[in-house]
Design a protein that fits this description.
- The protein is mostly helical.
- It has one domain: Growth Hormone, Chain: A, CATH 1.20.1250.20.
- It is built from 20 helices and 2 strands.
- The relative contact order is 0.15.
């Protein structure tokens, strides 16, 4: 054993990435569960006799709890540490997936989705917390992008591969297997993950004074983090990006593409997966590019403006040639990854001891995009429904989708105003 008085070395990269990667595995499952309803939408609609509003609501039950638990997650990770919170999240996620898989009624299915969303909602903030302790500060923006990539791989699994599995075994059986995997992940996290390198005899990358955070009550922590102007502004902004991808690739893209482009469900799911992959690739470019520019706001604003322009083309130009359609989905996903800057931006806007709480708040803002837009789009679709039904499932015309999808432009315009009011950090800690 090394002399306790001797300087400690930093943890080896292999260990740091392994520990961070186990946290990322829960985020993998979070994205898988987030996107799965898009692929099994017709199965769920037929099973529970759903309208577009009730389908959007079923999918959004994931987001209701996910968003609602983000502030508690940020507070708890600053007090309990990532290891305990990740393990508990895995256990509850496994239970929620089992409830969803066995649901005899829509109410039980909603309850299962609610349990899943709240529990996997700890993953991203815990990953950021582990990165702050196990990774060098210059790697923080990069790990945020890689985190999204890991999640998107889960989303891709919930695309065409999930459709093939459901066709072969049934959606309930596949969800039971998903519950078993999540339970095994809980065991691995508890066994291997540690909150800080010092628990394994290494020096920590964390330079703040985290031990001061538990002295604050919940309300004091919230008051402290919201005393920094950027926190509230940055909460609102990212949903303008994520609302597009989470609503389209996460639920409404498959029925839109099957109805208006004549694609099979597996083919449409594959295109939604392509959009998610482009989202992941884009997320890995924004962070390093922002660091090179030495600014956050210009790249953020440019990404939002271009995303809205691409979304307008996708929504309002009917019967696009297939190659153009695919290209638009790819580029929209890539450019729409600009929201990833918000995590480094928020971290730099508050003291290090409040980083977990700030991360939870802005991640809540990211997920608000899906939480609000999935059911609202369904509600507008039902308002514009002409009465068409195919195989017991409602079919919506292009005008209905255009009306529903247009709501994203309002959010984008308001988000640009919020971003303009935010204080630039120049990629450095402000406090």
């Amino acid at each position: 054993m090394a002399d306790a008085s001797s300087p400690r070395s930093l943890p080896p990269a292999s260990l740091a990435w392994t520990i961070w990667g186990l946290g990322a595995a829960l985020y993998f499952m979070a994205f898988y569960q987030r996107v799965a309803p898009a692929v099994i939408a017709n199965d769920l609609t037929a099973e529970f006799a759903l309208t577009a509003t009730s389908l959007g609501n079923l999918s959004a039950f994931y987001f209701y709890s996910y968003v609602g638990f983000q502030i508690p997650t940020g507070l708890l990770v600053d007090r309990w540490g990532a290891r305990k919170l990740l393990t508990l999240g895995c256990v509850i996620a496994a239970l929620g997936t089992l409830v969803f898989a066995m649901a005899p009624t829509l109410a039980w299915a909603n309850a299962g989705r609610f349990l899943i969303g709240g529990s996997v909602g700890v993953a991203f903030v815990c990953m950021l917390k582990l990165a702050a302790h196990w990774m060098a500060p210059r790697q923080f923006a990069l790990t945020s992008g890689i985190a999204l990539t890991v999640g998107v791989v889960g989303g891709v699994l919930a695309g065409a591969p999930l459709r093939w599995l459901v066709d072969g075994f049934g959606w309930r059986e596949v969800m039971v297997a998903s519950a078993a995997f999540t339970a095994l992940l809980a065991v691995a996290i508890w066994w291997i993950v540690r909150d800080d390198p010092m628990e394994k005899g290494y020096a920590s990358h964390f330079t703040g004074h985290e031990d001061d955070a538990p002295a604050l009550s919940v309300m004091q922590s919230l008051k402290a983090v919201f005393s920094y102007r950027n926190t509230a502004l940055l909460f609102f902004v990212p949903g303008a990006f994520s609302g597009i991808v989470l609503s389209f690739a996460g639920l409404w893209g498959v029925p839109f593409l099957t109805t208006h482009y004549g694609l099979t469900k597996a083919h449409a799911a594959g295109l939604c997966s392509v959009m998610l992959v482009a989202w992941a690739v884009g997320s890995m470019t924004y962070g390093p590019l922002s660091e090179r520019l030495g600014r956050r706001k210009p790249l953020f604003a440019a990404g939002m403006i271009v995303t809205m322009a691409l979304w307008a083309a996708l929504v309002f130009i009917p019967a696009l040639p297939y190659a153009v359609l695919v290209a638009l989905l790819i580029v929209t996903g890539f450019v729409g990854a600009g929201f990833i800057i918000v995590f480094a931006y928020a971290k730099e806007s508050v003291p290090p001891a409040l980083a977990g709480t700030a991360s939870g708040i802005v991640n809540m803002g990211v997920m608000t995009g899906g939480m609000v837009m999935q059911p609202v789009i369904g509600w507008v679709l039902d308002l514009r429904w002409t009465g068409a039904i195919v195989n017991g499932v409602r079919v919506y015309d292009l005008a209905a989708y255009q009306s529903a999808f247009s709501l994203m432009f309002i959010w984008g315009a308001l988000a640009l105003v919020m971003l303009w009011l935010a204080r630039e950090t120049h990629c450095h800690q402000l406090t």
